[in-house]
Amino acid sequence: MAAPELEHLIALLAKLPSLGPRSARRAVLSLLGQKETQFAPLVAAMQTVLEKVKTCPVCGNLDTITPCAVCSDSTRLNHQICVVQDVADLWAIERTGVFKGQYHVLGGLLSALDGIGPDELNIQSLLEKTEANKNCEIIFALPTTVEGQTTAHYLSDKLANSLCSISTLSRGVPVGGELDYLDDGTLQMAFKARRSL
Amino acid sequence: MAAPELEHLIALLAKLPSLGPRSARRAVLSLLGQKETQFAPLVAAMQTVLEKVKTCPVCGNLDTITPCAVCSDSTRLNHQICVVQDVADLWAIERTGVFKGQYHVLGGLLSALDGIGPDELNIQSLLEKTEANKNCEIIFALPTTVEGQTTAHYLSDKLANSLCSISTLSRGVPVGGELDYLDDGTLQMAFKARRSL
User: Fold this and answer.
1) Is B92 an 8 Å CB contact of chain A?
2) Which of A57, A114, A197, B91 has the fewest Cβ atoms surrounding its Cβ within 10 A?
3) Could you count the other beta carbons within 10 Å of the beta carbon of residue A53?
């Protein structure tokens, strides 16, 4: 058996998503093979992130500054608020560079199965934002799963009395998508939402 | 884009075997979601392993004590030396509890493709061990790949003049193995090496 310190580290690493006991063991052995070039920099980087990265109190993004870089960027539009499920989706949209407004991270989706109700999500502060920020546009960038669409419906009900307009990302054929390989639901949706050229 | 500290950590994690940029990002977000229960203990465990775990100068195992727990265990047999490719294989054999002798970690396999020759491996110290320890048994626990068998041939040539006997792990049908699903080479090997009951 490996030393208890090693077994402890492997057990902790194995809890990460997309790692298991075997891949965690391989990762630790690979790190120990390159202590100076890989292991020490990784530990230092983790320490920095653990100490410095905080959740932005305004939008829910993760950043080393408070409010986060997006919220404190004065060149960004204040009247557009993009509602996302989690920080990963926020980063994905930021990588495209297509959106120049504010974000609001829900921190999950409504799910009866997982027992996640409105109180578990970051919804109240969204309602307060829309009251303060009249004539804004709320853009739902939520997954097109059952949970994502349930959440979108719930939110649009809650926002019905606000003075903000509500929109959602378009659905249709993905870029590079072969029609033959597409599921029926997406193809139907793309037909119904066809645009004139 | 995420903060530079986060991007740096994701890039370092993505270099680990069995992780890529996307799974590294998921891992970091999962850790940041459980700072106290997951992230801080993981950083502490990595720091401990980075500082304390050393390569054993005798056998090449990784442990917090020098020589390692296996080499300093006086109850283990000294006249059996099991030659393995790397520490992962040593740990795998130790988990079975079947072997009570000493180990010798080569640190890799001979590979013309990867440019790994005898000088890159921990071979010289094995030869010295066999000279000092006469009448020992050398057990090759090497993979049954081309590289593994090349290395075994090379080592048995080098050890031909020593007074040690040389053996290798048996090949055959794995426990729980269906004959129908076995490759032809293994089935042939299992037939040729059949034992009387």
Assistant:
1) no
2) A197
3) 22
